What does this fold into?
Amino acid sequence: MNVQIPDKTVGRLSLYRRLLSNLLGIEKVKFVFSHQLAKDAGVTAAQVRRDMMIIGYSGSPKRGYAIEELVESIGQFLDAPDLQAVALIGVGNLGRAILTYFAGRRPNLRIVAAFDNDPNKAGTVISECRCYAMQEMPEVLEKKNVTTAIITVPAGQAQDVADLLVSSGVRGMLNFAPVNLRVPASVYVEDMDITTSLEKAAFFARCRTAS
Amino acid sequence: MNVQIPDKTVGRLSLYRRLLSNLLGIEKVKFVFSHQLAKDAGVTAAQVRRDMMIIGYSGSPKRGYAIEELVESIGQFLDAPDLQAVALIGVGNLGRAILTYFAGRRPNLRIVAAFDNDPNKAGTVISECRCYAMQEMPEVLEKKNVTTAIITVPAGQAQDVADLLVSSGVRGMLNFAPVNLRVPASVYVEDMDITTSLEKAAFFARCRTAS
DNA sequence: TATATATTGTGAATATATTCACAGCGTGAT
DNA sequence: ATCACGCTGTGAATATATTCACAATATATA
It folds into this structure.
């Protein structure tokens, strides 16, 4: 866990796991070859095998990867051994959508608290998640041992929220606010910038159409 | 427009533009140095200058980049000369949040139609955007000359929707469904996988805490 | 049990992205 | 009008990510 794990590999592992779970659950397949998984994931077979190398999982020639075992291995690599508590800050439209989406999905990676400035929201429960006032944040985060947070507040408040999160012990953030957050090097930020992504899609739509 | 434009550069250009617009609008600054823009964007100064090279914009030594001019140049590079119409498919929680977020934001990159399976939604207007029944999609897309789409339907429907979009002339997609869409090489897909991103944030939160 | 075969695991090669480092130059100061 | 400075633009170097290509090998078959 101390050597440098490539960011991209972690993302792909999460993707592989989802695809493998589908195979297991829906199609009842037991084994899969690197090229099959690669096709489903939209990457090359060599890429899949490299990623397996990184987590130290070995398949068997001629049979491929034992799906159940592999899912287990990915889980051991990616997941916390116990519950990893997540908080969501900013219960607007997007925040609510995310709460609903994650409600009861992954038992070990659960949104255990939501926070909002609006005092009317404090005390309510949205999609099984309790909503707190912003002032309660440090206290609740520490009590619930939250290490990961989802930021869905407006751009203007994002940096302040991030500072507060860092000082409350959060070390990983999923940031939907369109600002570059300043955080210590020991904190990881994954940005999801919807505007930028839409502009990319629009740009390449034009590019491709032109050629 | 025919040479290979790096995906990442396009994303950063969109980001630069937003930062520059802030500088212009709020702080009334006229010029900016590569290292200032770099700091705001969370990249290196050399990176900024490379990106400028790619769009063929030149600053001046000692003064830096003329912000207004640069915003204009980025716009010329990124934006369509006229309106670029966007459609959103899947008016659930996430779809509504996105509609609200983009309402009236960028006049030249506008969500002009939303689609949903639910017949009750057809005919309604959500955040200034007209909602249509799914069956009307091909007709409306062609009439409104839509080239870019946002997919916010459940995973199970995403591939069907994508196929329909492609056959209706859409060439760029922003996909929120957690599936790898099969599309012709001439179509660009930007994936936003919230689950995967959250798992990444959670993973690195643990990584950093461990060390 | 022996054999043929299709797949894995991985060193090396390649491709892509980023950073370094510095020549050249426009600007503001004098 | 001249000068010195600090920035830009960019070739080269480096770092990172992906793909190639093939030896090693486990399995299914006969």
In short: Chain B touches chain A through 63 residues (CB under 8 Å). Chain B has two domains: 7-77, 84-196. The two ends of chain B are 45 Å apart (CA to CA).
